[in-house]
Amino acid sequence: MHIHILGICGTFMGGIAVLAKQAGHRVTGCDAGVYPPMSTQLEAQGIELIEGFDPGQIKLEPDVYVIGNVVSRGNSLMEEILDRGLPYVSGPQWLAENILHPSPAYDPARASARSGSESFRACGGGAGGEGKWVLAVAGTHGKTTTSAMLAWILEDAGLNPGFLIGGVPQNFGVSARLTDSPFFVVEADEYDTAFFDKRSKFVHYHPRTAVLNNLEFDHADIFPDLAAIETQFHHLVRTVPGNGLVVANGREASLDRVLARGCWTPVERFGAQGWTMSAAGAVAFKEEYQGTLSWDLLGEHNRMNALAAIAAARHAGVPSDMGIAALSRFENVKRRMEVRGVANGVTVYDDFAHHPTAIATTVAGLRGKVGDARILAVLEPRSNTMKLGVMKDALPGSLQGADLVYCYGANLGWDAAAALAPLGGKAKTYDDLDLLVAAVVAAACPGDHVLAMSNGGFGGVHDKLLAALARVGEE
Asked: How far apart are CA 351 and CA 145, in angstroms?
């Protein structure tokens, strides 16, 4: 089969392309401003990329067009596809129908996580074309990290999982892969599927193991309020079979409300009521000690992510002590508190945090690591929700733990300086990225930690900061 992907350079759609290629399909694709790193990764896979959405691409005559949610009505190629009545499908639906079809061979009595008696290698359904045991990780925060942890635990246990993750786990070096294992880990996004399918992406995946990591208001461009997102999460819960498992954050009232609407699947909670972890890393399930996690990751949020991954892997048959041991070898995901370099004694980090809750936990995690050393927070409010200003009043509180704050306020529909005014003189806003970099470098001293946070490329700010800091060190 030949598939042509519209919007191929997004992380999710690029992952679809990799999976389709590994499944033996011919894959081509297009995007506006075909850009690395996804463009170079796809070209390395032998996938032909086309710049733009010219209607002439129909001459490729693919069997089906796979449509990313970046594509909307009015897109010239999409309009040609519609006018000609050509076959098209969303990325999540293509993934579900061609990769994630459930395994008919699943026998819950064989799962060692349930019986405690059989080897974890005996768990699950068929391999290859016989279907997949889908482990889906949903939540406002931590989806990518938790998915990467879960995939690594399964890998470390010898289960060779396939996966599609919205980032690059450093243990694997790729964001997606297809294997002959029955197990497949997918990052389950609540964002809408496509312009013609406004359901959340995750309703397509039909997981046997579903992680509900947390749930807050986000994606203000498509959801009017938290209740609307809770409804979508309940749609996901409705798809999990009775012999599956829901792993839910036990500290979230929003998830309690979701499950109270109806749940037909066993539930294990983490953070409270079930799976817990002490600050020292001691893991317990229903107050029974399972082992102690020793690792370098920072913060309570990562301990919660770890509990979710350990619980989900246990359902797939990996004993909890093996899951804990595997996470001691976990190398995290790129752009999650990733050290980009040290120059003139100043450490520069890159983090994906873009929601006030994620910003607060990231700053707190770094504070726990560096103690009294100064943290210079550098923020780009880039997500659709942040650009709309929905979360602006929560920003000062989320950045309170930083010593200095620098905000890149270009292209916002609201006044970033006014929003950050409660932080007083420690917060500064710039519409020019070069001026922001100069201000950070002028303030930075050896021993400081510069934490850059954005869900985009941030104009290459990390390299600019490191280069400028290095020049200062040479003077």
From this structure: 12
